[in-house]
């Protein structure tokens, strides 16, 4: 897929993740013990042979730059093509800064125009999966579609309140799209991924800009649904749509299922991330662990069950962590209990404290909190 470039559009609603996105964009939220959400879509592109990737960044992107650097871990530290950060357009209107994504596409048309690839894959970051774009690209060429969008059939477990759902004919052609649907428990979920010729993308951006339109999905896709030949390509594997604290928590709990973890991290290629060298985790004599993902540099003296621990977490003697996600450099002191908890970085839970959320409403602890 050397003739395909990738654009990752991070202009997503950050409010859904509340405390987790106070200091970072959704794409930079840690997940799975040592990864960030953006690692999945970026690794999918690299594993599919894409070597030119542009990232349209939101306002607060310092943590994203720190994580990704020059793209070395993804083999994008290159003299030709490589990884490009496309900062947000500061377009001022009487009501403040204009943030919808088409304006940001428009402000980076020079990057799109001068890229040497013929095709482009556009993707958001909050759809976590492991897929092969080569298969979807072959489908796009075989159907001779103007555009191919990727979708996943809902299992009924997801809340589709913030999704876009589509309807297709028997041959796969998309005949309808609806944002924030009324029926929130079933449908074909648009994965916010689209394949098209670069020239079509430029025409859509210019056409929308000339009419004052501002949203790529609503104005670029839905309004042109009957003018363009748009087909849907079905993704058959695992998909996590991160649009709330509950969905983030559920996705991390899903990783404790071996079949899901194996598929997500290895099925169509390895998921890459920033490498941080450190000592192995130390399990002391009193440590008890069951069904847990534990990163390096941790020290465990207490009990860890059905949980994910990031780097450098310390669980003291007599402490118990159950059904929880504990991020980097947290400390759980003696005889403390955490259950159904998402703990941000550098949190200290002092001796004897009991913190318990609900399975469908986990307790979230803000960064650097001491309890």
UniProtKB/TrEMBL annotation:
Its EC number is 2.7.7.27. It comes from the Bacteria. One of its GO terms (biological process) is glycogen biosynthetic process. Keywords: Glycogen biosynthesis, Nucleotidyltransferase, Transferase. This is Glucose-1-phosphate adenylyltransferase, GlgD subunit. The keyword Nucleotidyltransferase applies. Belongs to the bacterial/plant glucose-1-phosphate adenylyltransferase family. InterPro entries: ADP-Glc_PPase (IPR011831), GlgDAde_trans (IPR011832), GlmU/GlgC-like_hexapep (IPR056818), NTP_transferase_dom (IPR005835), Nucleotide-diphossugar_trans (IPR029044), Trimer_LpxA-like_sf (IPR011004). Gene3D superfamilies: Hexapeptide repeat proteins (2.160.10.10), Spore Coat Polysaccharide Biosynthesis Protein SpsA, Chain A (3.90.550.10). One of its GO terms (molecular function) is glucose-1-phosphate adenylyltransferase activity. Pfam families: Hexapep_GlmU (PF24894), NTP_transferase (PF00483). Residues 284-354 form the Glucose-1-phosphate adenylyltransferase/Bifunctional protein GlmU-like C-terminal hexapeptide domain. The lineage of its organism: Bacteria, Bacillati, Bacillota, Clostridia, Eubacteriales. Residues 18-186 form the Nucleotidyl transferase domain.
């Amino acid at each position: 897929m050397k003739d395909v470039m990738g654009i990752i559009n991070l202009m997503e609603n950050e409010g859904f993740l509340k405390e987790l996105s106070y200091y970072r964009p959704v794409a930079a939220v840690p997940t799975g013990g040592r990864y960030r959400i953006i690692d999945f879509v970026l690794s999918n592109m690299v594993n599919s042979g894409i070597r030119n990737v542009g990232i349209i960044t939101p306002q607060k992107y310092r943590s994203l730059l720190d994580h990704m650097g020059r793209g070395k871990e993804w083999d994008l530290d290159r003299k030709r093509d490589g990884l490009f950060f496309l900062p947000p357009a500061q377009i001022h209107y009487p009501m403040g800064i204009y943030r919808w994504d088409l304006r940001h596409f428009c402000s980076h048309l020079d990057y799109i125009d001068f890229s040497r690839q013929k095709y482009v894959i556009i993707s958001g970051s909050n759809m976590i999966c492991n897929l092969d774009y080569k298969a979807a690209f072959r489908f796009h060429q075989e159907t001779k579609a103007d555009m191919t969008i990727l979708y996943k059939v809902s299992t009924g477990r997801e809340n589709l309140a913030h999704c876009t759902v589509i309807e297709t004919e028997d041959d796969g052609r998309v005949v309808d799209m609806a944002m924030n649907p009324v029926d929130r428990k079933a449908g074909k979920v648009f994965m916010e991924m689209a394949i098209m010729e670069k020239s079509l993308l430029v025409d859509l951006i210019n056409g929308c800009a000339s009419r004052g339109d501002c949203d790529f999905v609503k104005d670029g896709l839905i309004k042109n649904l009957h003018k363009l030949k748009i087909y849907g390509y079905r993704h058959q594997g695992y998909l996590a749509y991160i649009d709330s604290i509950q969905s983030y928590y559920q996705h991390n709990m899903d990783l404790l299922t071996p079949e899901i973890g194996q598929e997500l991290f290895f099925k169509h290629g390895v998921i890459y991330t920033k490498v941080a060298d450190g000592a192995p985790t130390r399990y002391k004599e009193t440590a008890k662990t069951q069904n847990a993902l534990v990163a390096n540099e941790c020290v465990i003296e207490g009990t860890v069950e059905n949980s994910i621990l990031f780097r450098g977490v310390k669980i003291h003697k007599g402490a118990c962590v159950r059904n929880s996600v504990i991020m980097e450099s947290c400390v759980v002191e003696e005889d403390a209990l955490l259950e159904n908890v998402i703990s941000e970085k550098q949190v200290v839970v002092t001796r004897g404290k009991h913190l318990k959320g609900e399975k469908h409403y986990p307790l979230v602890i803000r960064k650097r909190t001491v309890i």
